[in-house]
Backbone:
């Protein structure tokens, strides 16, 4: 049996490194609307895959282009260096299917459009 820790919407102040080790998940799945720094914190505390879909309140995902020396170029600027894809240590599942911890997982982030946020879609979309 695969143990999955599912997190979403609010940071859990009691989810400390020791607690994460005690829970011992095989996979962490984030269902959106968590700050990137929080997902990075969780990913740094566990040695298992961390996968996520963006929520309707999450910022636009800007992956950048990987350079040979391990840095990244911003997609919209010529030769402008940027940080790597965020959140670090987590894999985005939005409109994708991946295998993690022996499970096949499909992801679709966001919600029905109610304003102009980057992860909001019309019914047609």
Residues:
């Amino acid at each position: 049996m695969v143990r999955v820790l599912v997190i979403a919407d609010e940071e859990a102040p009691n989810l400390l490194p020791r607690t994460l080790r005690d829970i011992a998940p095989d996979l962490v799945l984030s269902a959106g609307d968590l700050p990137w720094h929080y997902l990075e914190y969780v990913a740094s505390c566990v040695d298992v895959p961390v996968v996520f879909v963006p929520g309707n309140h999450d910022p636009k995902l800007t992956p950048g282009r990987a350079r040979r020396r391990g840095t990244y170029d911003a997609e919209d600027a010529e030769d402008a260096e940027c940080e790597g894809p965020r959140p670090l240590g987590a894999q985005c599942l939005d409109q994708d299917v991946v295998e993690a911890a022996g499970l096949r997982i499909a992801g679709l982030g966001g919600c029905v459009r109610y304003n102009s946020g980057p992860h909001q879609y019309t019914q047609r979309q």
User: Anything to note?
Assistant: The two ends are 36 Å apart (CA to CA). The chain has two helices and eleven strands.
